[in-house]
Amino acid sequence: QEQLKMKDQSLRKLQQEMDSLTFRNQQLAKRVELLQDELALSEARGKKNKKSVESSSQLSQEQKSVFNEDLQKKIEENERLHILFFEADEQHKRLEAELRSRLEVLETDAAQHQAVVDSLTKKYTETIEKLQSDKAKLEIKSQTLEREAKDCRLRTEECQQQLKNLQAALGSRLEESLCIINEKVPFNDTRSSRYNALNVPLHNRRNQLKLRDLAGQAMAFVQELVTALLNFHTYTEQKVQIFPIDSATDIISPLNQKFSQYLHENASYVRPLEEGMLRLFESITEDTVTVLETTVKLKAFSEHLASYLGFLRKILPYQLKSLEEECESSLCTAALRARNMELHRDMKRLTAVFEKLHTYVSLLALPSTRPEGLLRTNYNSVFTNIAASLHGFHDILKDISKHYSQKAALEQEVPTATQKLITTNDCILSSVAALTNGAGKMASFFSNNLDHFTTSLSYGPKGGAEFISPLSAECMLQYKKKAAAYMKSLKKPCADSVPYEEALANRRVLLSSTESREGLAQQVQQSLEKIAKLEQEKEHWMLEAQLAKIKLEKENQKLKNSLSGHLTETIQECSVLPNIAEQKKETTEKSLREPVKSTSLVRNLTLRVPIRGTNCSAPDVESREDLIKTHYMARIAELTSHLQLADSKSVHFHAECRALAKRLSLAEKSKESLTEELKLASQNITRLQASRFLCNDELMTTKRSYEDQLSMMSDHLCSMNETLTKQREEIDTLKMTSK
């Protein structure tokens, strides 16, 4: 604004100068016109009279000079006056502007001073009002404090009375508790960390379900990693067989042969990782208490990871030498050589990060075998290092994926690149991408749940800091199972019970019965074996019958085919038939005259067949065969019945002998159990005698603790009295200040 004012002033000054100059120019122009008119008149007069002209010219020149001097003086005076007027006008304007600016400043200062005065007056009025309200509040507060002081006096009297009552009640309860401790409590297990570790901690079902869910997610991630690792090693083996030398056309180097041989064994090292994680997931159930001391399966997973780390260490030098050999190949360009050296460094970093992971996982497995190897204070640092190692593993895999994609693109430009090499590179890239994704998921999963792992895997029994040893943790889990089974049994409705004496009698009968469960099971097993043998024999004879039927069909077909060929031979055989018939008659007569003998296990049966001449008919022979058949069938049935009777008797005698042997073993076991109970009873007697002295010591300590509590309560009453006196003093001071 000040610059704008200055510009306006200069503009006005210039405009005034312009106006003055235009006015002066107009005057001069008029003066020049007058002079020209006079010159014209003088010239006209000069023509009339040259002489007069000459004289007048002299006069005119003098007049001109006088006029010029006069004009010059007038101009200078006018200029000087104009300058003085302009300077006076400028000075007046400047003074007016300064005065106006000063007036504005003074007006703003006056407004500010007025605002400050108004604010101060307002502030002082508010403070006065506030002080008045504070004064009223303090008066009310002093009145309330006086009432509270009266109440405190009454309460102190009541507390003193209650203290006396409590002392009397605590004394009676102390005596009662001492009597109960003397009679009932042998020892307090929570005082000793060794015994407290066997107590079952509070069951956190939500925590167990959360841990099982997290273990399931971790198992899924490990399965993804295992699949990707298997594919990566397998496709790497194929790549070694193809590039830089194809094994189908030429012999690859012994180094690559050994490398591919080791890579072929990758499944035996990678698969156990998935199995170990599955066993770990199965061990985390809703009913168990999952802490590092009870996760025994983590040790097996650590061992599987160690075996896989050994596999990586075994193949690492071959892999590095294979990359160096590929760099020395004639097909390898400078860019491809640079990519190979980058992969050379990446593979070393990959093995190093697996070594870190194995170290930290083995540390986590220590509490289940040697608790002194890892303290609970170090759990958080171990989990943090595992999360950092997983993130490092993810970063290394991203670098491997980047470098391998560049390497595959360069290998495609090689003139000897085949379609098989391109597809193998694509498969390796896909497996590395799957590895990268799985490692990223695992790293983010572990980082997100790091606090939960640290807090949930480090709780223990109530009143104790931790489990003493894996053995105590295992015993605690057994006690937990027993307690859960006991609670379930309490929830079940009680069935109709059998009287105790009847139940004992039934138990003795069941234990000593000949038809016991074991004997029946053995008989069933023997009968099943017999049935199986009979089934096998049945199948065998059915096969034999089928074979015989097939042979019969073949023979019939042969006979039909040979009928046409034997027609001529039948005529010749007709002449020979009478002789053959005579021979057959002689042989039948001899056989009929000889006695027929039938032998069995019991006796020999001799059947005399009567000879009725050579005219013996066919029905007699058939009836004789039927008689022999019926006799043998009856004999077989009799023998089988005898055999079954003998078998049943032998089974009965065997069962009796087994029952007697069982009775003998039960008697021996009862004898041993009774002797052990006798020993335990004697030990309990000695232990109770020792615990009696311990209980006396504990009673003395509890008595001292009660006395300390009473002294503390008396000190507390004294402190309350002191606070009451202080409050009274404060009330007095507040009254004085309010006045």
Automatic annotation (TrEMBL):
GO molecular function: RNA binding
One Gene Ontology cellular component: membrane
Coiled coil location: 11-45, 103-169, 517-569, 657-691
Lineage: Eukaryota, Metazoa, Chordata, Craniata, Vertebrata
One Pfam family from the record: KLRAQ
Protein name: Protein phosphatase 1 regulatory subunit 21
Compartments it resides in: Early endosome
Gene expressing this chain: Ppp1r21
Keywords on record: Coiled coil, Endosome, RNA-binding
Native species: Sterrhoptilus dennistouni
Top-rank taxon: Eukaryota
Residue intervals of the Protein phosphatase 1 regulatory subunit 21 N-terminal domain: 1-71
